[in-house]
Amino acid sequence: MTETTSGPARGSRAKGSKASKGLRIERIHTTPGVHPYDEVEWASRDVVMTNWRDGSVNFEQRGVEFPDFWSVNAVNIVTSKYFRGAVGSPTRESSLKQLIDRVVKTYRKSGEENGYFASPADAEIFEHELAYALLHQVFSFNSPVWFNVGTQQPQQVSACFILSVDDSMESILDWYKEEGMIFKGGSGAGLNLSRIRSSKELLSSGGNASGPVSFMRGADASAGTIKSGGATRRAAKMVVLDVDHPDVEAFIETKVKEEEKVRALRDAGFDMDLGGDDITSVQYQNANNSVRVNDEFMKAVEGGSKFGLRGRMTGEVIEEIDAKGLFRKMAEAAWACADPGIQYDDTINHWHTSPESGRITASNPCSEYMHLDNSSCNLASLNLLKFLRDDDLGNQSFDAERFAKVVELVITAMDISICFADFPTEKIGETTRAYRQLGIGYANLGALLMATGHAYDSDGGRALAGAITSLMTGTSYRRSAELAAVVGPYDGYARNADAHKRVMKQHSDANGSAVRMDDLDTPVWAAATEAWQDVLRLGEKNGFRNAQASVLAPTGTIGLMMDCDTTGVEPDLALVKFKKLVGGGSMQIVNNTVPKALKRLGYQPEQIEAIVAHIADHGNVLDAPALKAEHYEVFDCAMGARSISAMGHVRMMAAAQPFLSGAISKTVNVPETATVEEIEDVYFQGWKLGLKALAIYRDNCKVGQPLSAKKKEEEKKAEPVAEKKVVEYRPVRKRLPKGRPGITTSFTVGGAEGYMTANSYPDDGLGEVFLKMSKQGSTLAGMMDAFSIAVSVGLQYGVPLETYVSKFTNMRFEPAGMTDDPDVRMAQSIVDYIFRRLALDFLPFETRSALGIHSVEERTRHLETGSYEPSDDEVDVEGLAQSAPRQTESVNESTPAAKIVEEAAAPAPKQAHTNAELVEMQLGINADAPLCFSCGTKMQRAGSCYLCEGCGSTSGCS
């Protein structure tokens, strides 16, 4: 991944001026007279994405153009998700340039039309700086921008929506309709149902009301039917109920009862796995549920007193309950099925900039956007690792100056987007244009902390996270005040001016009282302090353009687009990652942040190499050579031998929350062994630490698993019965006959010459390989001799050739480079060449094609016909059996009779396709994340949602 400019940013902060003059935009990264596109090397890539469940191709577009430093995964996701136009048509986008131009030029045009820029030259600088930052993965807009901006369809830019519903059938039916339209557009929505009278209250006709839980059932069925964005994934929604609502206990228990139903149906033989045929019979599964608690209730819990549930129509207490008992039920439900989450109402509204326009009653599905009913928020996130600088002496610093400049650029663009944006309902459009809510945030915090030698759960890590968050929000509101001087404050500002300025003072005071820890965070705090001083001064003079500025979103798909190692505010998933390679194939690598962290901690190069090698072998740092025990915590991850504690997650959220307009999308993971009391403590401490919202997820608390019930049943049948005699099976070596056919190939790789002799069984594929390098007696020649013997013995014991090919192709070391073989023009090492050549000589087309290995003839055929596969009269029938694993002699004179028994079919070796699956294999666990409905791979958590690393799909609202 190519880093952005590491030196000081050019130019100074753009200043707001009179409305007639607009903004003066100064350069950050770009050079006058040079377009950002001309400063990078472009490469042509082929994007072919398959469904791992059945091997079918679910997306294919060849010859797309991207910068050479973009990863395979980022290229695949942007091409499949964000390029517009029918695949295969001339109108289909085929270059990142087209995608960025479509968006950036739309923003520039709207900015010019609405008086944002002082001159055309400033507009051009804005365009080039925005293009540079997107091109170099410095930041990204949320997905709806890439989907819609610059197209013929409605230009929806917001991903997060909040609706409202009143106590009338007309309002409830409008809720169903509005929510459905938002789901259809690929976004998510949240709302509070507390205005609907409870089932314990009477209707005007004299009968009992249905209550909000009953109406939730209809909305849930609607969401499950419509799906999201016309795709096959579930819609994203949030349902909130106030803790003083008389139906709150039924609300808490909705999902617990459904989980019990799932267990009963599963035990009866129904397919109740995630995505299973029968899971649709379960209710309330399409929403995240949260209870909105207030300080009165939490103090009652703390003091062990009674708490009153109030009627919706009169506001009078109609029932008193034990507060601690109700709090316990919330924790028990979260322990059992991860719902409900909790939202802290008084804290949320204490930081509300527009209280005269209404209270904040709900959030979007992922809990980061919290503002007025019938409103929306467009998001953008910065890649924090792009601002980490390393000087020639190995010293690190966070480039606070350049970070602030990019924040100002992005906030300006985000505000411009509201000028031309379309909205799913008229009410949402009116509110959003009147309050102009924005949600700037960041990704890669976990990677940044590790790279700088900070433990995620440490005072130093929290100080750096808090400083960056404070600088981001302070800079955003400073730019908002400058924009107010140019194009005016938001329409609702005059009514809410005192409250807005009060909240700005609260942010500034929190910044001033924050603890400074070390040489990394202290300069960032200083820059944030200056920004907040400007906010107070300019806000008093100009007002503010935006009622809200910042949130911390999940950054799922856009995090993959930016090649981020970690999403949002999350820590790293694990130390070893799964990486896709250009041309097919994949490899496991130790996180690039690990060596940076070790260097920051003072380790020498040879020590770093040994520690990284240990991590590659074991997946963790325990007992790594030369690594001090006090440094273990730096490498703690979300999963693994040293996973971060629940309170470690909560404390990190608390470090960032005082510096955010909105909230934080994050689920606090606790181990399967966690108790209900521990979950109670997490919810209680979240209130004490000033969080706005919190959700718990206990490992394996969900019944639905990615493995289907039928497969589980088959596995049970395959397991040996306890009474059966246990027999140990061992492979039997099958030696080659004295006379055997062979192929001798001469080759050169990167200037190194060698010879390979490959001998095969007369009827059963490759069985022996000899490798000779031209310089006899050299270390390389000796290693090649030993390596060829080891491979030959493995082949004779039945190891399939394709296993060796998948393991050793793409292995990179010197000598590497050009070869003299027309079928394999480039090799990353001698081993890479050898096994590509062996695959071409001994594996059938279907097997090696799946591994991305083709001959020059096949590649030529693909260019001419679009297919690598030969026609029927070209198929090598004799070679089709060579890829099948050769069975060892099961019946021969040396095989004991006791071994001749019926053997259960062995399961196919498990293969990782994403980091989540790789972690499962390393740790021997089976996380109950869902399978991606698009490509079949295991998803992983990203904030309160799930993210598919294979194709970029999310289960959330972005």
From TrEMBL:
Organism superkingdom: Bacteria
Catalytic activity, reaction form: a 2'-deoxyribonucleoside 5'-diphosphate + [thioredoxin]-disulfide + H2O = a ribonucleoside 5'-diphosphate + [thioredoxin]-dithiol
UniProt keyword terms in alphabetical order: Cobalamin, Cobalt, Disulfide bond, DNA synthesis, Nucleotide-binding, Oxidoreductase
EC nos: 1.17.4.1
Span of domain Ribonucleotide reductase class II vitamin B12-dependent N-terminal: 47-137
Composition-biased stretches (Polar residues): 884-895
Disordered: region residues: 1-24, 863-895
Transmembrane regions listed in the UniProt entry: none
Keyword Nucleotide-binding among UniProt keywords: yes
The TSCPD domain, residue ranges: 740-840
Necessary cofactors: adenosylcob(III)alamin
InterPro entries given in the database record: RdRp_reductase_class-2, RNR_2_N, RNR_lg_C, RNR_NrdJ/NrdZ, TSCPD_dom
Record-level Gene Ontology MF annotations: cobalamin binding; cobalt ion binding; nucleotide binding; ribonucleoside-diphosphate reductase activity, thioredoxin disulfide as acceptor
Residue intervals of the Ribonucleotide reductase large subunit C-terminal domain: 158-697
UniProt similarity note: Belongs to the ribonucleoside diphosphate reductase class-2 family.
Annotated protein name in UniProt: Vitamin B12-dependent ribonucleotide reductase
Gene field: nrdJ
